[in-house]
Amino acid sequence: MNLHELNSLSQAQLKEELMKCCGSASWVKMMMTHFPADDLVELLEEAEEIWYECSEDDWKEAFAHHPEIGDVKSLEKKFASTAAWAAGEQGGLSQASQELIEALAGANRLYREKFGYIFIVCATGKSAEEMLALLEARLQNNPEEEIQVAADEQNKITKLRLEKLLE
Q1: Cβ atoms of 138 and 146 closer than 8 Å
Q2: 79-90, pLDDT tens digit by residue?
Q3: Among 18, 30, 32, 166, which residue is least crowded by beta carbons within 10 Å?
Q4: Which domains, from first to last, does the chain contain?
């Protein structure tokens, strides 16, 4: 779809498309006021600005709309509307060994226990080994640092998905 087509959607359809880019209801609601949009660059800038106006609870809501890194089954079921995007974003896992997938699952569990939400990373272009290393490094963060890092990663994902939406 192009920007003109996105601008022409009904409010309900626009909301649905924006939710595919970021699962925060507050972010979507604030983004809706910026349509019709003039150009992609402006839209991406507004998306980022609005993201950082959201609360930590809004951020965590957005995180919950992602499958865990390496969780192929949830990609297929719960996240069907964004499964193709997420599968592409997590493409680096396709060559991962079972041992590496299990290490990711274990680290994901530790992360969720420590921070109370899933590990969020802009996985595009990263190998499974890189994602595991990032996950293990970020487990060393304190909760205040980590929520900011996770929010930054979600911002990257949202902007990439807006771009994919308009390809």
Answers
A1: yes
A2: 455 545 554 555
A3: 32
A4: 3-61 (no CATH), 67-165 (1.10.3330.10)
